[in-house]
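Protein modeling request. Please complete all fields; requests missing the sequence field cannot be processed.
Requester role: graduate student
Desired output: 3D structure, C-alpha cell encoding
Chains: 1
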Amino acid sequence: MKVVILAGGFGSRVSEESHLKPKPMIEIGGKPILWHIMKIYQSQGFNEFIICLGYKGYVIKEYFANYFLHNSDVTFDLANNKMTIHDTRAEDLKVTLVETGLETMTAGRIKAVEKYIDGDFHLTYGDGVADINLKKLVDFHQSHNKIATVTAVSPPGRFGALGVKRDGQVDFFREKPTGDTWINGGFFVLKKAVFDYLQGDLNKVPWEHEPLEKIQHDNQLVAYKHIGFWKCMDTLRDKIELEEKWRHNPVWKIWE
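Delivered output (256 residues):
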C-alpha cells in the first residue's frame, strides 16, 4: 500500500528556517520531520512513498538525490576528483517526488498524484508524528468498507486545568489534561474511489473542506481513534517540544 505525504507547506510559523526549506524538511534531532514520518511507515511495512511537493520542493529532491551523503561517512579526494561513500546505510524505500504546484491547496495536491495510485492508499501530512499502529488502522479501514478512514486524536490541552470550589479551595489540578474533543490527526487510509470527490479545479480547495465534507455527507467517512502519542509541528513551540521529546522520550520512534 502506497503512502502519500503532503509536503508542500511553507511552515512560516515554525522557525526562521522556513525561508530556506519547506516545513517537512525542518529538523527534529538532526533529521527532517519528513524522515521521521517515513520511518513510522517503513518500520511497519509500508515503504513506497509519493511525496507532494510545493514550496521549495527542490530541497526535498536534493535530500533524496544525496541520501547516502546525508546518512553515511564520505571521503572526497579532491586531487583526483573522486568520492568514496563509507558504510552505506541502504534503506528499503521507493520515493516518488511529484511537483504539485507552489500555492496549490491540499485537495489539488492529492488530485495531482492520482495517476500514481493503484488501490487503497495512506495519506498523511508532512508535519505530524505519532506512535500509531498502522496495521490496525488498515485493518479497521478494510473492515468497514467505506471510502475514507481518518485517524482521530484527542490532544492534551495547552493549559493546566483547575477544579475550584465555591470557597476557593482547589479540588483538583491536572497538567494539560486530555480533552473530550476528537480532532483530525491525519493518518488517513483511502480507497481510490476518493478521487471521485476530487473533480474540477481544486487548486484553491483544502482537502479538509469540500471533499472531506462531501465524503462525510455521503456516510463514507469513518474515524479510527488513536489513544497514544500524537504531535503536530505547527509552531516553533511545537518544534521545541518535539526536540525535547526526541532527546529524552521519543515516543514516536517505533523503529530500531
